[in-house]
Automatic annotation (TrEMBL), chains A, B:
This is DUF1611 domain-containing protein. Residues 40-124 form the D-glutamate N-acetyltransferase-like N-terminal domain. Residues 130-327 form the D-glutamate N-acetyltransferase-like C-terminal domain. It holds the Pfam family DUF1611_N. It comes from the Bacteria. SUPFAM superfamilies: P-loop containing nucleoside triphosphate hydrolases. Transmembrane segments: none annotated.
Length: 334, 334
């Protein structure tokens, strides 16, 4: 559990895209962000108040979150200087970088000396159980994709936001580093030991109120040869009552696999439902979330209408149109 | 890679079942076994020559393999005495125990002082790649089960043996600790980090001669809520040309999951083939391996005949009947 609120560290981001983790936190949990910290030459700007470490501390910030990708897989000396000062000012530091904070001897030493915590959210800190498959109370919705990186996290976050705006009970359940930094907790599923994957998802989505929904962040794809085992653990550990199919219609091949075509939405529906029924006989597909960022408005509308007609399910782009119709379909499950 | 041949350590096994790992090595790789080492009170006997450490060393043994389960999850002082002497005599030690040899400070110190190797085969020693899904040369057969522990390893080993007896090219590819101890190498798949599971299976079953078959040891089941992600990685990393369906017909529920019934062989066939076709469009189910240990001869024969008729595929118990008909079906694929 990462202490909030955050000061978002944008470092020397060469462009806005490099700071997309920080952007995600600001977009989805604005109340968790007291300000941004930018170094000389930073080209990203979230529109938050620029603060020094001391100013952020005075404003109540508890954790400095590294919201920017680093260059060349190194934590630079320029970054280090800020991170050391932050620890000395009393901040914890949270990071989803591949190279771990804890593997930097100077940061580790200062954190120990100051009693602060280094959160490397890519690494599990919990000894997860083996999954037991037992029926849990409460309800769960899982986003599954025709491919990796088609909008599963965005879809789950948008549905969670809509649920909360309607006064309904909902929790976004993070399974990747960006999601964990956004919510301050979760399971870094791709780094869990094989035998404990499904158990970690059960741990993440425990018994809850009968009318509470977990919106589980998906990972990978059942059709992605590299990561399908991770997705399988989400389906069987997550015990979903509802699935949302996620798709990006302009993708020419599976991400990172040039010789693999994407499956059809029908193929995804059939495989995902068959597998979900192993753990939850009542699971249904409630809608389709399409990432239309590479389509014009007209193209997007035409594509969504065609999919909706063909699949007999609400088809929306939650970024353009909001997640209202997906939440309507969840609520209609009762 | 564990150096062969082995001296099989049976310790103070309370019964034959406690030494089943040693029994497996002796059954499947008798040429790797120069003898057995039994302590006072040992109730297991593989029928190998009892040897002292010095006798085994003189007979050429390179590695002492712990072929017996330990009691209470502890490596006892009585065992330790033998293990330390073995290191001092020049043996490596290999173990599939949950508690690791390397976590015993005295064993670790002696191994370092003598330059010997402690092989804890439950723990990966390789940094496996992310799977790339690219088509590999050679052929692969994967055993998939309706449940865990239904005879997948036995089936793959029996088919490998039959292939070799016919002078055909075959390798048993171990994915669990017993299999790794039997062959001296493999991937401890259940201990691999999630993102690298499928890649570890690709690593295990690399390019090979066009007429060479890998017989891949299965793990878990696509229908087992706790471990299905591991099985999925085998299907997508293994890129199988052939599947063998494995089943135990008297099982009343999924192993460890009292509220889960086993799937039908038809359900397993359909799901496993659909998933295998993602990575290998030509994959087919070539036969069914039934563990009939809890059936009489008459019951077994009747059951196998019924399954063979119903599924339209050879159905055998390789323990009772050998794997000849399964290998016939493989060979018939050309």
């Amino acid at each position: 559990m990462i202490e909030t609120p955050y000061l978002l560290f944008l470092g020397d981001a060469p462009d806005a895209l490099a700071a997309k983790v920080a952007q995600g936190i600001k977009d989805w949990r604005p109340d968790n962000c007291v300000g941004q910290f930018r170094m000389d030459g930073c080209k990203a700007n979230l529109g938050l108040t620029d603060m020094t470490l001391a100013e952020a501390k005075a404003a109540g910030a508890k954790t400095l979150v590294i919201g920017v990708a680093n260059r060349g897989g190194m934590i630079s000396q320029a970054w280090k200087k800020v991170l050391v000062e932050a620890l000395e000012e009393g901040f914890d530091i949270a990071s989803g970088l591949h190279n771990l904070l804890r593997n930097e001897p100077d940061l580790k030493a200062v954190a120990e000396a100051t009693g602060r915590t280094l959160h490397d959210v890519r690494i599990p800190t919990v000894q997860y159980p083996i999954a037991n498959g037992e029926k849990r109370t409460g309800k769960r919705c899982l986003a599954v994709g025709t491919d990796c990186s088609v909008g599963k996290m965005y879809t789950a976050l948008a549905m969670d936001k809509e649920m909360k705006e309607r006064g309904l009970k909902s929790s976004f359940r993070a399974t990747g580093q960006t999601g964990i930094l956004i919510t301050g907790e979760g399971v870094p599923l791709d780094a869990v030991i094989a035998d404990f994957m499904a158990g970690s998802v059960e741990y993440l989505t425990p018994d809850n109120d009968a009318d509470h929904w977990d919106m589980i962040e998906g990972q990978g794809s059942l059709f992605h040869a590299s990561y399908s085992g991770v997705t399988m653990a989400l389906v069987h550990g997550g015990q979903p009552d509802a699935l949302v199919l996620c798709h990006e219609p302009t993708r020419e091949h599976m991400r990172g696999l040039p010789s693999y075509k994407l499956p059809t939405l029908e193929a995804l529906r059939d495989v995902a439902l068959t597998l979900a029924h192993v753990v939850n006989a009542g699971c249904t597909v409630i809608g389709i979330s399409v990432n239309t960022q590479h389509l014009s408005d007209d193209e997007a509308n035409a594509y969504l209408a065609e999919v909706e007609e063909r699949m007999g399910l609400p088809a929306v782009d939650p970024f353009r149109l909001g997640a209202g119709r997906l939440v309507d379909a969840l609520v209609a499950l009762g």
